[in-house]
Amino acid sequence: MIGSAVPRVALLLATVAAIAAACGAPTSSGTASPATTAPTSSSTAPAAAAVPSQPTAAASWSTAPVTVVHHPPVPPVPVVTGVRYAAHPTDGYDRIVFDIPGALPGYSAKYVPKVVADGSGEPVPVPGSYYLLIVFTPAQAHRDDGTPTISGTHRINLPMIESYAVVGDYEGYVSVALGLNGKAGYHIAELANRVYIDVAA
Q1: Upper half-sphere CA count for residue 70 (Cβ side, 13 Å)
Q2: Preceding omega of 76 cis (within 30 degrees of 0)
Q3: Percent of the chain that is helix, strand, coil (3-state, to 5)
Q4: What is the pTM of this model?
């Protein structure tokens, strides 16, 4: 009885040892691996980069008159719908933008000794020491019902551009005077739906 029990005990111990060894041995399959989280980076993917201001090439700064001719089909007459402006101190200029949706009119820019209203020729007080006159044609600064889109005199107090004044919306011409703190070189150009002027500051 005792003799027959010894092999059974030995067999039982051998089985337990085999099971323990199996549990401790690594397996390549059949076991569930713990869920892992992909490492996260401390930096996130950058958002779409903002369009930087484009500095005007030094060779293009000038105080001389500029005229650009366009012949948009009319009607409709191009409408100057808004004015925007900002200082760009890092790039060394102030920028003023005229929004003109659709086909662009021709435009010119020149320094003038004084500012007068189109049509009447009456002097217009514009804050500033020097005056840069921008004229758009064919263009208008009002809707078809006569509502003005841009008008008046506005102090904007940029480093070089002190103010702007709409001094004409007359017979297809829109005239805007910039009041400047000095006679500085400027650059006038266009992009889709707008004309902009950079004034060295």
Answers
A1: 20
A2: yes
A3: 15, 35, 50
A4: 0.72
| Region for 115 from its dihedrals, namely left if φ exceeds 0, alpha if ψ lies in -120 to 50, beta otherwise | beta
Residue 123 has which token pair? 């002097």
CA dihedral 130, 109, 189, 48 (to 10 degrees): 40
What is the CATH T-level fold of the domain 60-200, as seen in this structure?
A: Immunoglobulin-like (2.60.40)
User: Residue 5 and residue 63: Cα distance in Å, rounded?
Assistant: 115
**Pairwise CA distance, residues 134 & 182, whole Å:** 17
Indicate the domain borders of the chain: 60-200
d(CA 134, CA 173): 10
Q: Are 134 and 108 in contact (CB under 8 A)?
A: yes
Q: Which residue has the higher pLDDT, 32 or 188?
A: 188
CA 192 to chain CA mean position, Å: 13
Any idea which residue has 């021709």 for tokens?
Answer: 106
Q: What span, in angstroms and rounded, lies between the C-alpha atoms of 98 and 196?
A: 6
Q: So what's the pLDDT on residue 8? A: 47
- The span from the CA of 191 to the CA of 12, in Å, is 90
Give me the residue label for tokens 């399959």.
29
- Cα-Cα end-to-end distance for the chain: 112
Rounded alpha-carbon distances, angstroms, from residue 151 to 93, 101, 147, 154: 24, 18, 10, 9
Per-residue pLDDT for 14 more than 70? Answer: no
How far apart are the C-alpha atoms of 73 and 68, rounded to whole Å?
16
